[in-house]
Design goal:
elongated; 3-stranded antiparallel beta sheet; 138 residues
Length: 138
């Protein structure tokens, strides 16, 4: 069996210092765990403040998971941010984020379909049914 040193030293890329995203204060959902990338709000313990450095690194870590293992990426994330996150903690966080993203995509599609349906209903209510128009309507 080979040790890491035998196959050559490698390191994940550094966080990108491009455009920063806008992060928002969120409501604390449970009393137990503060999610990676957030800290307790100083004035209101039922709110969580974003830590931009951790959240940006987490976004990059998600992309690294396509090439590297959970253990390697969690170690890298800890090294970059100074905050510990286990491999399973990272997996759980990524899974939750993916679930929320899928849910929001589905809801946006449903909202678009609803908007289109409402537009069609407005057309029908104006009296334009197919090629025919109801008398007295414009």
């Amino acid at each position: 069996m080979f040790a890491r040193e035998d196959v050559g030293y490698w390191e994940l890329p550094k966080p990108h210092k491009g455009e920063e995203k806008e992060w928002h204060v969120i409501v604390r959902m449970s009393n137990n765990t503060i999610p990676f990338g957030y800290k307790l709000h100083e004035e209101n313990p039922s709110l969580l403040e974003p830590i931009p450095l951790e959240l940006e690194a987490l976004e990059l870590a998600k992309r690294h998971l396509k090439q590297y293992s959970l253990v390697d990426v969690s170690r890298w994330l800890e090294k970059q941010t100074g905050r510990y996150i286990s491999a399973m903690g990272l997996k759980k966080r990524v899974d939750i984020d993916n679930k929320r993203k899928r849910s929001s995509v589905i809801k946006r599609r449903l909202a678009k379909r609803l908007e289109e349906t409402l537009h069609e209903i407005e057309k029908l209510e104006k009296g334009h049914i197919g090629a025919y128009s109801i008398k007295g309507s414009s």
